[in-house]
C-alpha cells in the first residue's frame, strides 16, 4: 500500500533564501548604516540593497562620519531618486579627548552630492566641524533644489568677521532660491546679525533657531530682521535663545506668523551682557525705491525697544549725520545687498560701520576706539588663521589613517560624553523672568494668523494669560507649561477660548517640548 507524503514548508536558513521583494520590504526598516553593513556581507544582498527605492531617504545619523567615509560609504548609495540626506560628524567626540577629525563637508563632497542626487530636497548636517574659510556658503548652492536645510550642533571655525566681511550667510538668497525650511539649532556662533541676513530669504516659511544663545543679544539687528524681512515666514522657533520681553513686538511685525515658540529649554540660559541701549543705528530704507536714495531709516534705541523714523537729506544735517550722505550716495541695490549700516551715538558721531566700500571713504570717520577694535579683530583673525594652518599640517596625515582604522563601518553615535563649550552666559531656574507678562503687548496688533503658540517656561501669570487671549483669538494650541499660570487660571482661559487646546504641565523635560 502506497502512502503519499505530505509537503512540508521550506525552511529558511538565511536572508538569501528570501525573494528580492521580501528582502526589499525588510531592508526598508533598516537605517542607512545598518543597510550598508548588510550589503557588505555578500554580493546578492549588496545588489538588492542598492535598489533605488531604499535610498530616497538616506539617513546616516545613527553613526558618525568623516569626509573619507562619506566618499567610501555614502556616495555609492546616492542616486537621482535620493531626496533626503542625513549625515552626522564627530564634533561631540572631541570633548572626550579624541583626536581631531577632518572636516565633514568639503567642496568636493558638495559637488558630488549635486551630481549624484540632483533632486535632493533635504540636507541635515549634525554635529559637524566646518571650516568656513575653505567651505563657503556658495558651495552649498551646488544643491539647487534644496527646500529643507538643517544645521544642528555644528561648529563653524574661522568664521568671517562681521565688521570686515559680513555674515557667513551673506547673499544666501542667491544660492538657496527654493529654501522653505531652515533650522540652525544648538549653534552658539549664530548672532542677530546673521538673523538680519537670513531675513532676506523671501521663500522661507519655517525658521528654527533653537538654543542659539546669541539670538536676542543685539535687539537692533533683530528688529530690522522682522520689520523689513521674512516676508513669508509662517513658523518660528526661538526657544533657548536670549530673547526678552521687548523683542516679541518686533517678531510679530510681519503679521503672517502661524506658529511661534519662545521660552527656555531646560534651565534658563542667556548672555549676561547686553548691547548698550544708547547706541543708534542708521540704514538705507529697504522699502524706498524712488529717489532720493539718501533717505534712510534711523533707529533710536530706548529702554522699550527701537523707535523708527525716516530722515531725508536735509534732516541728516540737522541730526549731525551729514557724513551719511556721502556713504549712501552709491548704488542703492549694492548698499542693501552688502547690509550696509552704521552705528552712531546720541551726538551723531560714528561709532562703527558695516560696509564694504572698497574705496575706504569711511576709514577716516572711524573714531580711535573703532580703529583699535578693527586692528584687534584683524590681528586675532590672522593669528587664528596661522594656528589653523599649523594644525592642518600636523594632523593631515593622521586624518587619513584615522578614517581607515576602526571606522570602516562608521562609529556608533553616542550622546553620553559631550560637554558644551563654555560661553559667557548665566543660568537660572524656571520660569524665565526676562519673558514675562510685559511681552503680551507685543501680540496686540499682529496676531490675527497665530494658531500655535508655545510659551513654556516663560514668567506668564493668570492676568498675562487673559490679556494674551484677547489679542490671539485665532489660537488653536497654547503651551503654558512651567509658567505661573494656575489651574484656576487655566479653567478660566478655556472658557474664554474654548476652541484652543491648552497644555499646562508643571514638570517638563526638553524632549517633550
UniProtKB/TrEMBL annotation:
<dbReference type="GO" id="GO:0019005">
    <property type="term" value="C:SCF ubiquitin ligase complex"/>
</dbReference>
<dbReference type="GO" id="GO:0031146">
    <property type="term" value="P:SCF-dependent proteasomal ubiquitin-dependent protein catabolic process"/>
</dbReference>
<feature type="region of interest" description="Disordered">
    <location>
        <begin position="356"/>
        <end position="414"/>
    </location>
</feature>
<protein>
    <submittedName>
        <fullName>F-box/LRR-repeat protein 12</fullName>
    </submittedName>
</protein>
<dbReference type="InterPro" id="IPR001810">
    <property type="entry name" value="F-box_dom"/>
</dbReference>
<feature type="compositionally biased region" description="Acidic residues">
    <location>
        <begin position="393"/>
        <end position="408"/>
    </location>
</feature>
<feature type="compositionally biased region" description="Basic and acidic residues">
    <location>
        <begin position="372"/>
        <end position="392"/>
    </location>
</feature>
<feature type="compositionally biased region" description="Polar residues">
    <location>
        <begin position="356"/>
        <end position="369"/>
    </location>
</feature>
<keyword id="KW-0833">Ubl conjugation pathway</keyword>
<dbReference type="InterPro" id="IPR032675">
    <property type="entry name" value="LRR_dom_sf"/>
</dbReference>
<feature type="domain" description="F-box">
    <location>
        <begin position="12"/>
        <end position="58"/>
    </location>
</feature>
<dbReference type="InterPro" id="IPR036047">
    <property type="entry name" value="F-box-like_dom_sf"/>
</dbReference>
<dbReference type="InterPro" id="IPR006553">
    <property type="entry name" value="Leu-rich_rpt_Cys-con_subtyp"/>
</dbReference>
<dbReference type="Pfam" id="PF12937">
    <property type="entry name" value="F-box-like"/>
</dbReference>
